[in-house]
Amino acid sequence: MTTQNEKNTAVAIHLSSLAKYLIPFAGIIVPIIIWQSKKNESQFVDENGKSVINFNLSLLVYSIIIAIIFGIFFIDSIVELIHYEDQGIDVTPVKLITVAIITGLVLIVWSITEFILILIGTIKAGNGEVYKYPITIPFLK
After folding, report:
1. Which parts pass through the membrane (predicted)?
2. Is residue 79 part of a domain?
């Protein structure tokens, strides 16, 4: 049976993912520190810690991929705009504005989804369950 102390530690690991909103990469580093200090004391804490760390590392990988994709579109839009201006054609930067709007919307949806998943994981840990985050690459097994 899972003790209240184990549940509290697992909840802290899940919630510590939100530290990235205060300090860059703290959402990865803080859960690792908590997990490392308690993983040998409880299988429940160990499983929750691995789940959280895998989720955060997966988000980092996905974020880098998305940044590269949107970066390519952004650079392409700028190059196209410069090309038209060199030709003496006055154009509205529609493509650039579109890329910026889509990027903003993706970031908003991404952040809201991440926040909701972290809350679900926190609640499940508080109830004594191990939450397996969706779309997670299993870096730690």
Report:
1. 12-35, 55-75, 96-123
2. yes
Owning domain of residue 38: 4-126
Alpha carbon distance 130, 97 (integer Å): 42
Residue 79 CB: number of other CB atoms within 10 A?
Answer: 10
Number of Cβ within 10 Å of residue 101's Cβ equals: 10
Q: What is the pLDDT of residues 54-102, one digit of tens each?
A: 999 999 999 999 999 999 988 988 888 888 777 877 777 888 888 889 9
134 occurs within a structural domain = no
* pLDDT at residue 89, rounded to an integer: 75
Q: Determine, yes or no, domain membership for 133.
A: no
Distances (CA, A) of 43 to 4, 95, 121: 14, 51, 16
- Number of domains into which the chain is organized: 1
Name the token pair of 65.
């991929």
Say which residues have a Cβ less than 8 Å from residue 87's Cβ, sequence separation at least 6: none
Contact 59, 114 (CB under 8 A): yes
Provide long-range contacts, Cβ within 8 A and 24+ apart, for 28-31: 28/53, 28/56, 28/57, 28/60, 31/56
